[in-house]
Amino acid sequence: MTIKQLSIFIEIKGGTLIRVLELLGKNNIQILASTIADTKDYGIYRVICDDPTRAYLLLKEEGVNIQLTDVNAVYVENVSGEAARVMKLFSDSDIHIAYMYSFLLKGRGVLIFRTSDPSKANEIITINKLQSVFEDDLKQ
Amino acid sequence: MPKLLNKKMAYRRELPDWSSEYLDPELETMSREEIEKLQVERLKETVSRCMNNPIYKKRLEEAGVSADNITSVDDIRRIPFTTKDDLRNNYPFGLASAPLEECVRLHSSSGTTGNPTVILHTQNDLDEWANQVARNLWMVGLRPNDVFQNSSGYGMFTGGLGFQYGAERLGMLTVPAAAGNSLRQIKFMKDFGTTAVHAVPSYVTRLYEVMQEQGVDPRKDTKLKVLAIGAEPHSEEQRQRIQNMLGVKAYNSFGMSEMCGPGVGFECKEQNGLHFWEDYYIVEIVDPETLEPVPDGEIGELILTSIRREAMPLLRYRTRDLTRVLGRGCPCGRNHVRLDRMKGRSDDMMVLRGVNIFPIQIEKILMQFKELASNYLITLTTDENNDNMTVEVELEDLFTDDYQRLIQLQKDVKRALKDEILLTPHVKLVPKGTLPVSEGKAVRVIDKRTVYK
Fold first, then answer.
1. Which of A70, A91, A118 is the last residue of a domain?
2. Which of B402, B403, B431 lies at the smallest CB-CB distance from A65?
3. Of residues A7, A11, A46, nearest to B431 (C-beta)
4. A16 touches chain B (CB under 8 A)
5. Fewest Cβ atoms nearer than 10 Å: which of B69, B209, B320, B353?
6. How many CB pairs under 8 A join A and B?
7. A47 and A86 share a domain?
8. How many structural domains are present in chain A?
9. Do B229 and B242 contact (CB within 8 A), yes or no?
10. Which domain holds residue A86?
11. In-domain check, residue A102
């Protein structure tokens, strides 16, 4: 039901972001989607890549402040209104969305999100027959 | 019971004619020979007094020093130094030279690390202290018809009661306004016709900002004519700015609780350095590494010996403040040594808004948070005339994917630091590996304030 996301602590002014990107590149890890919050001093850089476990160990080894986070990932049809329909399922059940972002995986729309209640979120996904993204789907 | 020093001399009952430039004409205008003669006499008295204290007695005997073999001021160099650690290690009363029943008050340093330093006072000490402060205030033109508002912290901090008693001793109407509540301070100034204010420089600036917000023009709406500023390092530029803001002279005041409090040194109307009162103290400037005296004009550590105190005289106290001798004569007619404003510290103590802070205090708090790594950096800055502290600290591990929890951690660290150092610093979390490494002597403090210039 969930996939692994890299959560990386970065300083907005510092060179952490470049360092992380270069390390991933050098080790042939491909970033599929990533997002960074617009904050004053520091933030969390969130990354979906093709090999999260290897990326995590590698960056950890390099002393980067990193956490491997379980996030929900579901496919959505590439038509307008789909994201709204899917997210409404959660909000109707009083599940709070901490953050959400989307990308195209091999031509298909994907929503990544983290909720206040992971087990209830999984229930919603099952009941509504939403199609989850699995880690193997991320491999190139 | 030890004999009190010149009991009859301490309390002042009469003031000179108001037109006199000097509150104590004889003492203030002594020649260098007269000053040194008095210092030898008082140093002898002080050394015999210190023999009442077992720690000092042992030290003096080991150094072969007694009142009898002191014949010149230079003999002071045979006496071992006293340090802040001596005070801490003998907390609270271990360095007292008078029995407790003769003491009437105690004060404590504004620092908050470990054991505070406690200073005892006899009634004579308090009287002399008030005389010193009164001498300073008279020197800058204040008379009994002035109204003195003391906007300094009270309590254990000597800037409160020290100025209170000194201003009263001079006969002024004295307002113990204490620090804070700027609107009320300004109201008092207007309503009471305040002519003189004592405050730390950054608070004077704050008062002016509030006056501006309230549409109060200090030149027209107040009777202010004199400011006494001290207890916090400040630059000549900062003084000029304060003078321009309020349209009055601002005089630099030096004091430290170990020596009594404010009143140790003060600027005269010439504003050409601090006159340190050599009838109360022997002043030395030494190289902080070799502890040998440095020539006049060269910067070194200020060493003070209190030669007029009963409860707790300190011999060759290492103040850790860096300064230099500017001269020993002055157009004002006083020959007491003139010292430059303090140029910094020979240890890592920081003075921020009148509070003494050591980096170790910050470190101790940061280490209590398991989310934080051991590297940190303290930066002191002057922003819009206020001194601020920023603490940057590395995150040990990213323990959450939730930005709100990082903000919460930042708030928790800030609160814990405030509880320790009594000021609220800016706290900034930074990724691991971005601050200087703690091997050897890492730079922990960067002082960017416009102070030590």
1. A70
2. B431
3. A11
4. yes
5. B69
6. 53
7. no
8. 2
9. yes
10. 72-134
11. yes
